[in-house]
Predict the 3D structure of the following.
Amino acid sequence: MIIVLFGQPHSGKTTIAKEFLSYRNIDGDRLRELFANKDYSREGRIRNLNRASDIAHYMNTDGDDVTLSLVYPYKEARDYLNSLTEDVAWVYLTYTDQRGRENFHVQDFELPTDENVLHINTSATSLNDCLKLIDNYVRNQKG
């Protein structure tokens, strides 16, 4: 299974991903660091996301469960991962309180509307409850 935790910066993606101890994690910030990618244009973001999708798909076909903790602001990039495998659970994280990274938000973020996505507001949901919601959602996806 590939669990994608996506949303604006500081929505809780990395914090939640770290709790999936048996899953291998691909984190957007670490991936950019590893590949020295500082291109935050739409095209640069999509290249980075598609790279993450390819790596996650490879790891998953090799038998690993994977979490992806990346912004994934564009439907095009989400569709790309979906085209590689059906073994994906999408979790869209939002927040309503101020966390200090709002100036890093992706302004042209395409909200998930027609996709099968679990929505969680991390301002209103504890970490443990987030994990329970995601666990139930993933179980239903595997169905």
